[in-house]
Specification:
By secondary structure, the protein is α/β, with parallel strands linked by helices. It has 2 domains: about 5-205 and about 245-305, Alpha-Beta Complex (Inosine-uridine Nucleoside N-ribohydrolase, Chain A); about 210-245. About 35% of the residues lie in helices and about 15% in strands. It is built from 11 helices and 10 strands. It has helices at about 5-10, 30-40, 70-85, 115-120, 140-150, 175-180, 180-185, 210-215, 220-240, 250-255, 295-305, and strands at about 15-25, 45-50, 95, 130-135, 155-160, 195, 205, 245, 265-270, 285-290. Strands 3-2-1-4-5-6-10-9 form an 8-stranded mixed sheet, sandwiched between helices. Helix 4 (about 115-120) packs across helix 5 and helix 5 (about 140-150) packs across helix 7 (about 180-185). The chain starts with a helix and ends in a 5-residue tail after the last helix.
Length: about 300
């Protein structure tokens, strides 16, 4: 890939693009919004596949899985559930199971249906017409595909929700750190990367109970599910107190829709020191440093409530 093409691929794409979404859908409440949003952006995003990523929240309050394998399997079922609520059950054949464990080394991939499919798909693309790989979970599935076929790095653009903002105290956010070996492989693969950080950036995309009740509840069965789920999860620990929840993963999808820069601001930066393997590497990535909370939420509501399936 030429340097000119590489930089071009770090810009928001114009026109319709092909993409896959890699998600730990059962881990939190935010993946469901990102999946639903993407489902109703098919005027811009041609969804080639949705992949289930592993998760295992060992050291946090979330106890939704006892192993990466269980986290992946629950995520697989949750993706299918969202498709059913959106009356898009026929897309279930494009949903695939990912890795059942994290990488054990920088050389050996974790075999999975997802890794094999991603290699197969990416080989159909080129630097001039790349496949967009949106990752909103750990990077195990993508890293495994890159280990299996390093050459596909030129045929993809990675849009990953991982890490924290550069002004935050630590870069080590859940998605990044859950399989840090995989994260290093992806960031050092040579693929164009758009980083959408967590704390300090997408943490601005907060929603509250009154907003969810006003804008989403009662609109359709999909909105009822995701808004109701968010409220029940929040009130399981904060009932009787003010609360808000972050829709962390939505901006990763919104970046592909942001050709008029309505939703976020970004800049080109050097590969962060904490992730690069070669200290002399000076490759650029695109770094999102600000999100417009109100515009993204407005767009999300507009897309989700336009669905009239009750």
């Amino acid at each position: 890939m030429t340097e000119e093409q590489y930089i071009k691929n770090l810009n928001v794409p114009r026109g319709t693009i092909d993409a896959v979404l890699d998600t730990d859908a059962y881990n939190e409440i935010d993946d469901q919004y990102a999946i639903a949003y993407m489902l109703f952006c098919q005027d811009k995003i041609n969804i080639k596949a949705i992949y289930a990523a592993p998760f295992f929240a060992k050291h946090v309050v979330n106890k939704k899985a006892d192993s990466p394998k269980e986290g992946m399997e629950k995520s697989y079922k949750e993706i299918l559930h969202i498709l059913d609520l959106a009356n898009m059950w026929q897309m279930g054949k494009r949903v695939m199971r990912g890795s059942t464990d994290y990488l054990k080394s920088h050389k050996e991939p974790q075999p999975s249906e997802v890794a094999e499919d991603l290699v197969r798909l990416a080989r159909l693309y080129s630097p001039q017409k790349p496949l967009y790989v949106i990752t909103i979970g750990c990077l195990t599935n993508l890293a495994s595909a890159l280990l299996m076929a390093p050459e596909i790095s030129e045929n993809i653009v990675v849009v990953c929700m991982c890490g924290n903002g550069s002004d935050w105290g630590t870069p080590y956010e859940f998605n990044l750190n859950q399989d840090f070996t995989a994260s290093k492989i992806v960031f050092n693969s040579g693929a164009p990367i758009v980083q959408v950080p967590g704390m300090g950036v997408t943490s601005e995309l907060r929603v509250t109970k009154p907003e969810l009740e006003y804008w989403l509840l009662g609109k359709n069965k999909l909105c009822d599910y995701i808004a109701g789920y968010t409220i029940s999860e929040a009130e399981s620990y904060a009932k009787g107190r003010p609360w808000s929840r972050v829709l962390w993963d939505v901006p990763a999808v919104a970046w592909l829709m942001d050709d008029e820069e309505r939703f976020m601001k970004s800049r080109l930066v050097s590969l962060p020191g904490y992730i690069k393997q070669n200290q002399y590497e000076n490759r650029l990535i695109r770094y999102v440093y600000w999100v417009d909370r109100d515009n993204i939420f407005e767009e999300l509501v507009k897309r989700l409530t336009a669905f009239d399936g009750i």
